[in-house]
Design a protein that fits this description.
5-stranded antiparallel sheet, 11 helices
């Protein structure tokens, strides 16, 4: 069997929700007779750059990416999202105290971790204190979408035109209808009971995390204007304010979904809850792929010079 990667090759490798540079030290094809982990197929023993050798591990081919410009951009985009999420985790904890509770799905709240998860220091800490990990299977087409989104905003000075249609609320409702329609064909646990809680939790989490976690700096003046138009402005009728999930669409929803593992690591969710959310979010990612021609923009709008000057000030 031909291997797509070779010993000594510089690669990128998924570890949890993020991507790290690594080097392949060994390559083997496992079957039932020689597998080391009960998994079969091509496997690679990798060393992560800057990590202790104790973190060297065997990984499947699905966790590896070629070291090229596109995948490095994806790595940077995921890291930026995770950094914003970690920076705001203490603010989320304060929000929990102020509101007296959390969303029904238990996401986006909890105490900020002090072991530096996702950093070299954190990786050198005792593994016994780690909380349940939420590993998402992000389809390749959505990884490309994340890179294109990052480049459009941060490199090309473009914006997602708002309000979006369908918006996040529409997408979550369509997903709910889709899963219920599948009936016994779905492997998801108790969808009629659990699905409303999951989608409600994702909506609440999106509304609470958008301003703190999900925006690039270039988008903040647009966000401020949207808040003024639909939430805080003098023309907004009290009681008729709009949540951000009714304004933003699939582009920002996807940013939130890939940030969830980092948020879950900073939350108080137990292992069973993490597993449930993971299964439903993975199914939602597949749904986004199937409906991507309707949900995602093919072109972003160019910003004015005036807007660009404001964003830099």
């Amino acid at each position: 069997m031909s291997l797509s990667y070779s010993v000594g090759e510089r690669v990128l490798c998924y570890h949890g929700p993020l991507i790290y540079e690594a080097k392949i030290l060994k390559a083997e094809v496992w079957d039932e007779s020689n597998t080391k982990t009960s998994a079969v197929g091509p496997h690679f023993f990798v060393h992560y750059k800057g990590w202790k050798q104790t973190w060297d591990e065997w990984v499947s081919i699905t966790r590896l990416l070629k070291y090229d410009e596109t995948n490095v951009a994806l790595q940077k985009a995921l890291t930026n999202q995770a950094s914003a999420a970690a920076a705001s985790s203490s603010g989320a904890a304060k929000g929990k105290s102020a509101s007296g509770g959390t969303s029904t799905a238990g996401m986006g709240s909890g105490r900020a971790r002090k072991d530096g998860r996702g950093t070299k220091r954190g990786r050198e800490e005792d593994d016994s204190h780690r909380k349940p990990e939420m590993k998402l299977n992000v389809p390749e087409v959505l990884k490309v979408q994340l890179v294109d989104d990052w480049e459009a905003v941060t490199k090309n000075n473009q914006l997602v035109p708002l309000p979006r249609k369908p918006n996040v609320l529409d997408i979550l409702q369509e997903f709910k209808d889709h899963v219920i329609k599948m009936g016994k064909q779905t492997s998801l646990r108790d969808p009629e009971l659990i699905l409303p809680t999951i989608t409600s939790g994702l909506q609440v989490y999106f509304d609470r995390s958008l301003g703190a976690n999900l925006l690039y700096r270039f988008e903040r003046p647009q966000y401020a204007e949207i808040r003024k138009t639909y939430v805080t402005g003098p023309k907004v009728v009290v009681g008729q304010e709009k949540e951000m999930s009714a304004i933003y669409g699939a582009e920002h929803l996807l940013r939130m979904l890939v940030s969830l593992p980092q948020m879950v690591a900073n939350s108080t969710m137990d292992g069973e809850s993490v597993g449930l959310v993971k299964d439903y979010v993975n199914e939602l990612l597949v749904f986004l792929v199937d409906e991507r021609s309707r949900f995602f923009l093919t072109e972003y709008e160019s910003s004015s010079l005036q807007y660009q000057n404001i964003s830099r000030s």
